[in-house]
Amino acid sequence: MIYAEFAAREAAGESPAYEELAVAVSLDSRVLALLDTLPPAKRQPNLLFGVGRFLGAPVTDPPAFLEFAVANWDRVSREILARATQTNEPRRCALLLPVLAALPQPLALLEVGPSAGLNLFPDRYSYRYGEVTVGAGEPVLECALAGIGAPQRVPQVVWRAGLDLNPLDVADPADLAWLDALIWPEHDERRVRQRAAARVAAAEPPVLVRGDLVDDLPALAGRAPAGATLVVFHTMVLYQVAAERRRLFAEVVRSVGARRIGVENPTVFEYPDLPNPPDERLHHVLTLDDRPLAWARPHGQGLTWFGGGIP
């Protein structure tokens, strides 16, 4: 079911290779039986396909990929169990920018689940919302914007840090190879974007701390400079966290006096009065302090605003 849904809602129109591959997996009893031996959180398509790319599997040839997965399941499963989907898509900064630019400046940024920390540099990139360009850095992040005007500035960031169970290092070729493997086969522009963002992060590495989003957040938040608005943010992270831990995380963020920006699947928290998404494709919800503001496309392709002004 999960692979058929992935093909229809996530890969359709975005990656013909992964759409075809997901359908093939959904119909192959051998691979499905092997996936069933994994913990539920480790059965997701992006993780299987990313590991396949990392190991050199033929992800654009579904029959060959299925045979590779079956024949090499010991290697494949070992990598799946050791890794997580840590997509570091810099274009997600274009989803965050309208909120970041509207908050009291300067900002201290703390990302939960930062991977290699590429989204901790929203002030260093430039953005194109239709005809409006904001900022003056590389890469240029394009995002279709509806329901709100484009922000007029990039934020002033005076501190940036990340908290991750397994932070990645942009100076480590193996970590960069894993990030590259998580990018879908046809998305060459995403590879170019990611490599440009990695150069930014390598020039000024952010503070990345190995730790838990509940237990270790207060200590890291306490390192933020006084006089800056502390912003804790997370993008497509909390679906990997148990529901009770999500609730505790939100409480901890409130307890340290931070604003919280999230871009997550609408099932991660309960939002009773969400409007319908703009179309049938997969959308996540952009929130500020638990208040839904917009529908967001997963890789930062578009933002459809419905939430009024930013308090």
General description of the model:
There is one protein chain. By secondary structure, this protein is an alpha/beta fold. It folds into two domains: 2-82; 90-305, Rossmann fold. It has eleven helices and twelve strands. The chain has helices at residues 2-11, 16-26, 29-35, 45-54, 62-71, 73-82, 93-100, 173-181, 188-203, 217-221, 243-255; strands at residues 107-112, 126-129, 132-134, 140-142, 144-146, 157-164, 207-210, 229-235, 259-264, 284-288, 291-296, 302-305. A nine-stranded mixed β-sheet has the order 5-12-11-10-9-8-1-6-7, sandwiched between helices. A hairpin with a 2-residue loop joins strand 2 (126-129) and strand 3. The longest helix has 16 residues, at 188-203. The radius of gyration is 19 Å and the shape is globular. The mean pLDDT is 95.
In short:
By secondary structure, the chain is of the alpha/beta class. Helix content is 35%, strand content 19%.
Fold-level CATH name of the largest domain: Rossmann fold
Total of helices? 11
The helix-strand sequence is: HHHHHHHEEEEEEHHEHEHEEEE
> What's the number of structural domains?
2
What proportion of the residues form beta strands (DSSP E)?
A: 15-25%
> What general form does the structure show?
globular
Helix and strand composition category: alpha/beta
How are the strands of the biggest sheet laid out side by side? 5-12-11-10-9-8-1-6-7
Distance between the termini: 40 Å
Percentage of residues assigned to helices: 25-40%
CATH class of the largest domain: Alpha Beta
Mean pLDDT: 95
CATH architecture of the largest domain: 3-Layer(aba) Sandwich
Poorly predicted tracts of residues? none
Rounded to an integer, what's the Rg over CA atoms? 19 Å
How many extended strands?
12
| Major pleated sheet | 9 strands, mixed
